[in-house]
Amino acid sequence: MSALAHIGGSPSGTSTTAAPEPTKRGGMAAYLLLLPGLIWLLVFFVAPLVQLATVSLQSQFPGYPGYYYRNVDFGNYGRAIVEYWPHFVRSLLFAGLATFFAFVLAYPLAYAMAFKAGKWRGVMMICVIAPFFTSFILRTIAWRQILSDEGPVVSVLNFLHVLPGGHITETWVAVVAGLTYNFLPFMVLPIYASLERADPKIIEAGGDLYANGFTTFRTVTLPMSMPGVLAGTLLTFIPAAGDYVNAELLGSDISTKMVGNGIESQFFKVLGGYPIAAALSFTLMAVILALVFLYVRRYGTEELL
Amino acid sequence: MSTGQRLKFWFAERFAMIVALLVLFYLFLPVLYTFVFSFNNYKKSNISWNPEGSPTLEHWQNPCGPPGLCESLGTSIKVGGIATLVATVLGTMLAFALVRHRFKGRGAGNILVFIPMATPEIVLGASLLTLFVQGFGQYGLKLGFWTIVFAHIMFCISFVVVTVKARLQSLDPRLEEAAQDLYAGPGSTFWRVTFPLVLPGIVSAALLSFSLSFDDFIITNFVSGDTSTFPKFVYVSYLRGIPAQANVIGFSMFVIAVLLVVVGQVIGSRRRSPA
What we know:
CATH architecture of the largest domain in chain B: Orthogonal Bundle
CATH class of chain A: Mainly Alpha
Strand order of the largest sheet of chain A: 2-3
Helix content of chain A: over 70%
CATH architecture of chain A: Orthogonal Bundle
Low-confidence stretches of chain A: 1-19
Number of helices of chain A: 13
Order of helices and strands of chain A: HEHEEHHHHHHHHHHH
CATH topology of the largest domain in chain B: MetI-like fold
Distance between the termini of chain B: 42 Å
Largest sheet of chain A: 2 strands, antiparallel
Oligomer: heterodimer
Strand content of chain A: under 5%
Distance between the termini of chain A: 23 Å
Structural class of chain A: mainly alpha
Number of strands of chain B: 1
Largest sheet of chain B: none
Radius of gyration of chain B: 24 Å
Structural class of chain B: mainly alpha
Number of domains of chain B: 2
Radius of gyration of chain A: 23 Å
CATH superfamily of the largest domain in chain B: MetI-like
């Protein structure tokens, strides 16, 4: 059950548990243990990326759509960015917003689980993970029903006359709502894992010293949960930035599409789209890795690895 | 403490719990919708509720009615089973090597395990597609069941390593030292002390792998060719209208998973209590 908690648990786990440094000298045993897994990752993770890189530089045979020849055409990147820069902006913006909202929703839940739930902790944990088992596509479609023009949310907002435009589906609001929902558990679990390890006595001591709930939270509780917040924001932002299912099922035809939609359609719907799609994928990965790197350097520790 | 402070304290004490319950409700709302719409007597698409003839048990009595639905479910379970088994074995071995051994390239190994988790699924899917089509295609590899399995093993390995590593790192090394002090050899120390202690982490990793594999859509969509898994079946049928039987199956999987987890927890706590 604690499966997902471990995801969050590990990045920061080393700091409090004082894990023993490995003592055994390498030798054959280490390499035998490593070999099968590393080979798998080399063949099915590294090699595909190399292939993707070469595809992103290929050119089309003129007059033979869908056929490519080896080339070093960096123009694909230029064409991809010229055509899809609004998609990039939307991906980063929507993912950023979704990460922010997920954090706002996740923190109280994780906090309550860690400090207030008592014997209900396990039950709440199951409740956070359980929705995973209904397919996420089905749940996203359920959001389309909930947010539809005849659904409860729009009806209430229209009754109160507070919804400009009168719709939620087919707008960016629905896409961000869907992203927030789908990746919320990835925010909750790491924050919970780091709060669970925190000693409630330290927070009580903070309360004694500051005698103000908010100050205690800002100066004691929040800093203690930072490793979890860091892991949670990464686990939310990265998949959200690459997602295309929410934009496809909840968004509109053009104005809410994200990079993922561009990659998907270049691969599957545009004949000869492989090089552009590959260039788009690579750019997305580079942008995300760069952001993650800066973010981890600013806030994180090496323990994330 | 003054009355004012006490009131504030009372409120603060419950505030987090109240928000938490609202967030849990939010998490469950779509599951509830999925459940309710499994009873919908819909005409063309199961998006809006049809008051005539609803609720109906028709879809629950005939869950495999729509062609391809239960076949895709079977594929998902098979893929999940194989991917979980292989990824758990390979990932556990990796975790032991990375935590317990000091060797050249350990840092690089850690990074290689970490980066797949920091890569958006769509990039993983796209890169695998190009490799399978342009690289392995010439050796006769066709997109389908096995390419899905290979891809799922890849992305599950990292999560297994992280999960098992966490468990291994929190292990008290004195337990193993004690075993060796009591003249246990390296073999029996491992199988009778280390392994049982790490086992809960391995089980968690396997459960996590299965649920990640079972619910994966993006990578699967890229590498599956004509083969369909349950999430892909739902996504593809969205345009023509999703059959309510998909809701029946989605909700049933949810109930089965919750039951298994509850049973597992009860057994786990029973086993712990006598000791």
